Amino acid sequence: MLRLLASGCARGPGPGVGARPAAGLFHPGRRQSRQASDAPRNQPPSPEFVARPVGVCSMMRLPVQTSPEGLDAAFIGVPLDTGTSNRPGARFGPRRIREESVMLGTVNPSTGALPFQSLMVADLGDVNVNLYNLQDSCRRIQEAYEKIVAAGCIPLTLGGDHTITYPILQAMAKKHGPVGLLHVDAHTDTTDKALGEKLYHGAPFRRCVDEGLLDCKRVVQIGIRGSSTTLDPYRYNRSQALEIIRGCQGLNVMGCDLVEVSPPYDLSGNTALLAANLLFEMLCALPKVTTV
Questions:
Q1: Which DSSP state fits 108?
Q2: Are 139 and 61 in contact (CB under 8 A)?
Q3: Helix (H/G/I), strand (E/B), else coil: 126
Q4: Residue 165 φ then ψ, to 5°
Q5: C or N: which end of the chain has fewer Cβ atoms within 10 Å?
Q6: What is the pLDDT of residues 38-75, one digit of tens each?
Q7: How many other CB atoms are there within 10 angstroms of residue 248's CB atom?
Q8: HEC secondary structure over 268-284
Q9: What gap in Å lies between CA 20 and CA 146, rounded to an integer?
């Protein structure tokens, strides 16, 4: 699943919201200033000079930071799969995606995007989720992402099952108001509940609509397919605009995630490698990325 958020408001940092530090990703530290346009930026090491198996297993072997301060964008892992209805294993997705990301280059020859010459990017590690309590995990995710967006940093998320999108959108909407959504998936994820539970990976967008987190006039779902348990499973979704958008460059993208990579069912690692490539493509589509 690939998701991109586009906010209707003007881009720029807004007021931050405090959060309990024990629940989230970061620890308080000295505030750093945003990088000047001519300041050096983090660069993934080139395989010309550093062998791919060498180094810490971060996304694209970027530096690992504990704070989003000073970053334009960051990769964040959310290793949670306790909202899965059938096949668990997505908790191992962030680590596997990072492992495969050593194969990526730093420029995009198809679009001409130069993300690492345009943005300050790092890996912020993983949200400290609670694998024994889904509601507590969602609280921890929301609090961690509130800190990220308060710092003016655009998150690129490595999932994790699709439940994680709900608390991420809670954090986004808390700062930006209702956001637009581009959702690429086989399923709508707008089921109301399963086995009496309203919080699981088949219901994140239903919860988001219920809470007013989405601007439904700017929601697009692409790739919906497959069998269903009812004859008209898309009735609820027809009150969202359904059209195909062929590119996100130029949109005011405020955040992205890629979820449901489950390494136990990806023995070759090809799915994780594809996921790493898609996350790089998301990075290339962010505002302020220059192209040649």
A1: B
A2: no
A3: strand
A4: -65, -30
A5: C
A6: 678 999 999 999 999 999 999 999 999 999 999 999 99
A7: 18
A8: CCHHHHHHHHHHHHHHH
A9: 11
Instruction: Choose among 157, 66, 73, 152: nearest CA to 120.
Output: 73
Determine contact, residues 104/275, Cβ cutoff 8 Å: no
**Comparing 8 with 256, which gets the higher pLDDT?**
256
CA dist., res. 113 & res. 157, Å (int): 20
Quickly tell me which residue has 């200033």 as its tokens: 33
CB 224 within 8 A of CB 190: no
CA 250 – CA 100 distance, rounded (Å): 28
Helices of type H across the chain: 93-100, 115-118, 134-150, 165-176, 204-210, 270-284
| pLDDT(145) > 80 | yes
Cα–Cα distance for residue pair 162/142, rounded to 1 Å: 14
